[in-house]
Amino acid sequence: MSEVVPAETTTARIIYFSSTSNNTARFVEKLGQPASRIPLHAGKARLKAQGEFVLVVPTYGGEEGKRSIPPQVVAFLNDPDNRALLRGVIAGGNTNFGTTYCIAGDKIAAKCNVPLLYRFELMGTAEDVSAVSKGLEAFWTARSIKA
Known about the structure:
It comes from Falsarthrobacter nasiphocae. By secondary structure, this protein is α/β, with parallel strands linked by helices. The chain is about 35% helix and about 20% strand. The chain has helices spanning about 25-30, 70-75, 80-85, 105-110, 125-145, and strands at about 10, 15, 35, 45-50, 55-60, 85-95, 115-120. The protein is globular. The relative contact order is 0.17.
């Protein structure tokens, strides 16, 4: 019988997944904001959001965009409590994917009815980091004004 691993909880406004390449992790680290990582391996504790968040996700290669969303992200969003707190998506990708560049973000945004806030390539540039930092500040400020 397998042991049930308790979920790690987070109130970080940035939740991200990064594969072993760590491109997405490097991008998120450059933002300099509190963030929580969806575990890479299933044997690790699950992650449970405790507040509104923006998801930063890489796009996996695949035939015509199939299997573009990492399975760990699918499992995270299959938790209805996590999905209910998702407020936006930022997608990483590789322009070598052509028309499927950052398609994981497009798919998640459409399925969860949230905005795709930004796209960046690989680990992002200094301009990407600046744009996302400013954009997130404006995004959360606008949300707090509406509340």
